[in-house]
Amino acid sequence: MAAPRTPDPNRRNPESTKAILEAALALARDQGWAKVSIEGIAARAGVGKRTIYRWWPSKGAVVLDAYAARLQDRPYMNAAAAEEGDLRGDLVRILGETWDMVSDSLPLLASLIGEAQHDPDLAERLWERLIGPSSEPVQDRIRRAQAAGEITADADPFRAAELLYGQVYLRLLVTPKPLDAAFLEDCIDLALHGLLKRP
Amino acid sequence: MAAPRTPDPNRRNPESTKAILEAALALARDQGWAKVSIEGIAARAGVGKRTIYRWWPSKGAVVLDAYAARLQDRPYMNAAAAEEGDLRGDLVRILGETWDMVSDSLPLLASLIGEAQHDPDLAERLWERLIGPSSEPVQDRIRRAQAAGEITADADPFRAAELLYGQVYLRLLVTPKPLDAAFLEDCIDLALHGLLKRP
Amino acid sequence: MAAPRTPDPNRRNPESTKAILEAALALARDQGWAKVSIEGIAARAGVGKRTIYRWWPSKGAVVLDAYAARLQDRPYMNAAAAEEGDLRGDLVRILGETWDMVSDSLPLLASLIGEAQHDPDLAERLWERLIGPSSEPVQDRIRRAQAAGEITADADPFRAAELLYGQVYLRLLVTPKPLDAAFLEDCIDLALHGLLKRP
Amino acid sequence: MAAPRTPDPNRRNPESTKAILEAALALARDQGWAKVSIEGIAARAGVGKRTIYRWWPSKGAVVLDAYAARLQDRPYMNAAAAEEGDLRGDLVRILGETWDMVSDSLPLLASLIGEAQHDPDLAERLWERLIGPSSEPVQDRIRRAQAAGEITADADPFRAAELLYGQVYLRLLVTPKPLDAAFLEDCIDLALHGLLKRP
DNA sequence: CCCTAACCGAGACGGTACGTCCGGTCTTAGC
DNA sequence: GCTAAGACCGGACGTACCGTCTCGGTTAGGG
Question: Which residues of D touch C175 (CB under 8 A)?
């Protein structure tokens, strides 16, 4: 009975969408996050501001979409199809694949997370679409290692992923030290062995 | 010899400084980060905008100063003077003390880190003044544990702190799950033992 | 063919325009020129500053428009339709009509001319819209007087108007003496007869 | 008994005064009136703002003083010493001498008069120090012409000067037409003869 | 095959805040 | 006690974007 408030997705202009996402990504990467604005995206995409506001709630959401779309355009990593090897080697491979996808756009990812601190809606989208899923392969591998008895059975795979990824995001967002492939490998070793000396 | 461009700190008005920091903190805590503006701080502090721009480069820097000043005003518990107990217990105490200081202003801390993602100068100040120093007690305790043979000698204390704190900051900034004292304790246990099953 | 830089006048909001002009006039008359500011006009008119800057280059231009609009709203007495009388009488009538329109806002007119001294664009607008046209009736009457042989044929009507009006503007802008209707009449007599004793 | 509010002129530093006046004049002539500010004058003169505010009430007053000082430095016109010639010739000479002094700084003079429209104190100073006195020689010559019977005895010399100078100031301040020596001569002729045809 | 509703570009609008300039007052140190 | 220097409060500047809105024009589908 009530008139629908949401716009009809079928009538969405794919060219405009594409132009907007490309413009957002280009601005974010070329001039940095601070220079991104809805107004700027609209101008660069040759699009009315209205068209952006119709489909996205904020500039963060646009950039997130643009960034996610770019990641999906990549020659998709086939973690699933990979042969199962030893635990450490598999973790190195999994993190390495993710690393290859994002290593050239770390500042953009950091800016998105930064923006999400004052934008709960963006925070949710970011977690649901990008960050949450990205730890699934690690959690899966942890679970298989638990089944194989390599890892304590009562460890929570989600917490295990946090132990591993926490180091990475801390570097990305806070610590003024390099974040590179070698560091990732060290993170894996440290997470696997922990701090206590083993007998 | 060259004429200094920076203003003379001796002529700084301490009352203005105090009013500005208080206004910044009040705004940040009451209305949230997004509502903080140089203009708003100046108005609430009864101060010219120029006076703020003279001494701080950005609103982030003001809020950081305000936040740091508040932390230092606390009746400081000095971890160093504490009786040395067992490793896990000391870590629980150290993290607990830090936690007590920041637990009522986590969103503000998160916003500061978020802002720092697009503001390298703020990022540096934040690390130097707030975040870097906060992990020193943990690193110290790790070093003593290494001397005592509890922890592998070749582990880097800084990396050890990253293993521990990474989990905390990941929760704070990214993961949509609760961050509380119980979680901190779990972080310590996980970091100490690592993922691999011990024989 | 080239993209126009100027905004499209068709999209101009007539209500905003009206509110701006009224606010400008009210501020200029109530508080005096010095208290007029774009910011103040915008606030009083309930309008964004941008809307003013979009259509006017300076506060002087706004006030000029407001002042000119107010003059045109007056129940216009058309000198042209007036019965032709003797030269002096007609001049008295013409100056009197102009006088009636501006006598209650002389400081505003003076301020506009004052402002125009440092603003060539305003000076041009002021001359084109207000001051230049105001001497036309005098020039017309001079021309008819030349045709009737009352005035030397080789006198330039524009210069004649300058002789007459110069005295008036000198009083308005420079001389600290009263400018009133009686003075206007004396200006006419002096301009008509000149200084040299007639035989 | 009461402490004097006005500063003691004897303690005035002549070097500062000179530097201020020179700086004011240089700024006014080089960058135009709009770029003149107390702050700018102080910086250029190497003087504290306080020193300017102590001796002048406004930037207009400073520039007026600077301008007046410059005029007095000129090789002073000796109108008084001039041989008395015929009326028209003397007027041409008197106006010509004034013209020679100001012709290279007309915009500055116009700006001063413009500023005086919103600054009654400046208006008074301007009239007393510069503009009023400048018409004295003309009034004197008019009086002598009246005594000689060349000019109607009942004409007010002050009004006569207004008739003559009004044309000049109108050009300077309002009319977008050239103001040059030839024009001055025409002003004299028109003022002497008036508009009415002589029998 | 036309009508009408939604999309689209463009951009004007009321606002908020920006970072800068300057006005006029006050403080500090030096002579 | 004047001076150079400049910090201070305050107000306005002109600009950048925000998110909403209105305007024609185009496009798509249901009558």
Answer: 127, 162
